[in-house]
Amino acid sequence: MFENFTPALLDLFTTSLWETVLMVGISGLAGTAVGLPLGVLLRLTDQGGVLAHAGFNRVVGGLVNAVRSTPFIILLVAIIPFTRLVTGSSIGTAAAIVPLTIAAAPFIARLVEASLREVDPGLVEAAQAMGATTGQIVWKVLLPEALPGIVGGVTIALVALTGYSAMAGAIGGGGLGDLGIRYGYQRFLPDVMLAVVLVLIAFVQVVQTAGDWLVRRLSHR
């Protein structure tokens, strides 16, 4: 079945897998670094939040929804000037990380916000009654209580980023998606395409399993 896998193609396959790991890993970390505080801000300023402010919440929430609702392939092309400004190029692994991060941040923000909503309001009220500041409520009540849900949300985001990274290959973003398109589709090598799909499935399974394990550990602390 895989008779087309020459040593050179196997080396390219290994390189492409590493590029996918880098794209998903770095954009996942960067997206979480932006999305986590953004999600906390959305929750704090929401109705019933510690810093409730309807107008601010609607504006920020609208911006988050606008990015989330933009199809990734369109986002990928639309921000090419910004990608060039940041990385000096619009193709390659480094360039793909920019739109992946921008796509991940609002997605993670909404997942974080949803996790924070599940925290018992009584805990927040008790902390306020004891004179806790907003920062203390966030770091000592909201985030610790919502941590399993946040980790689960980030895991979902990483799985989504894996699919997005493959899509980035359509415009030369590198990784397994690029390999599948260039060899599996354009050169009519179906076994290469099949191998790419199988490896992506295995990669997603590893990410999901690791995330589920971590959620279980955090839930039974």
Question: How would you describe the overall organization of this protein?
Answer:
The chain is mainly alpha-helical and 221 residues long. It has one domain: MetI-like fold (Orthogonal Bundle). It has nine helices and no strands. It has helices spanning 7-45, 54-69, 72-78, 80-87, 93-117, 121-129, 134-168, 175-185, 190-219. The radius of gyration is 20 Å and the shape is elongated. The mean pLDDT is 89. The chain crosses the membrane at residues 20-42, 63-83, 89-109, 150-172, 192-215. InterPro entries: AA_ABC_Transporter_Permease (IPR051322), MetI-like (IPR000515), MetI-like_sf (IPR035906). Keywords: Cell membrane, Membrane, Transmembrane, Transmembrane helix, Transport.
Write a compact overview of the structure shown.
This protein is mainly α and 221 residues long. The chain is 81% helix and 0% strand. The longest helix has 39 residues.
Could you give the topology of this structure?
Elements: H1 7-45, H2 54-69, H3 72-78, H4 80-87, H5 93-117, H6 121-129, H7 134-168, H8 175-185, H9 190-219
